[in-house]
Write a structure and sequence with these properties.
By secondary structure, the chain is an alpha/beta fold. The protein has eight helices and eight strands, in the order E-H-E-H-E-H-E-H-E-E-H-E-H-E-H-H.
């Protein structure tokens, strides 16, 4: 039975009280803390760096931290976020001069590597990398800003990647997560799960709600209803 993880994106949290916000969302049954790292070069926005990751670890956050690098170049920040306590580190193939080398660097530094596909990115980048990954992140919005509307056509991409993952002959205990990020909310998370995702990034849907626990519980109910 596949398990399903809710990754809460701190991009939508109250940064004036970030430690408390992350504690609250984890207490509300989120599984993972998601970092949207933007550099105002690869995407038109500027967000957080490794110091925030370090600060949360020092604050006492022990949950997995899922770092999505929307930066170019990527390798230096891979090193910094690994040192800061990241669990997953994902990057866009367009932002790396040598995709295979960056994947190897992430793993060498003790983190779990992921590759990120924008809505218009084809699956060709997975042809020689999929078995080396621990995560494939499908963007269901164009990266750069939180709170965007879900692009439904990416569900076909999620289905295609799930088919590829299911066809792999992975050793016992080895898993590759299929994550979706962008516009995920109670009303569509079931459809995303049915397409094959098992990890869901939610920012404004959680942090913009009045009751984090109820929102996450409702998301899990929708997932269960969709996948059985």
């Amino acid at each position: 039975m596949r398990d399903y993880l809710i990754a809460s994106s701190i991009l939508s949290a109250d940064f004036a009280r970030l430690g408390a916000e992350v504690e609250a969302v984890l207490a509300a049954d989120a599984d993972v803390v998601h970092f949207d790292v933007m550099d105002n070069h690869y995407v038109p926005n500027l967000t957080v760096g490794p110091l925030v990751c370090t600060s949360l670890r020092k604050h006492g956050i022990v949950a997995p931290i899922d770092v999505h690098l929307m930066v170019r170049p990527v390798d230096r920040l891979v090193e910094d976020f690994a040192a800061a306590g990241a669990t997953f580190i994902s990057f866009h193939p367009e932002a790396s001069e040598h995709v295979d080398r960056t994947i190897g660097l992430i793993r060498e530094l003790g983190c779990r590597p992921g590759l990120v596909l924008n809505p218009a990115t084809t699956l060709e980048c997975l042809d020689y990398t999929l078995e080396k990954l621990d995560l494939v992140l499908v963007m269901s919005v164009n990266p750069g800003f939180g709170g965007q509307a879900f692009i439904a056509s990416v569900l076909n991409k999620v289905r295609a990647i799930r088919a590829r993952l299911d066809a792999l002959d992975l050793p016992a205990g080895r898993e590759i997560r299929l994550e979706v990020d962008g516009g995920v909310k109670i009303g569509n998370i079931g459809e995303v799960a049915a397409a094959g995702a098992d990890m869901f990034v939610a920012g404004s849907a959680i942090f913009g709600s009045d009751d984090y626990a109820q929102t996450i519980a409702d998301m899990r109910k929708q997932i269960t209803a969709a996948v059985g």
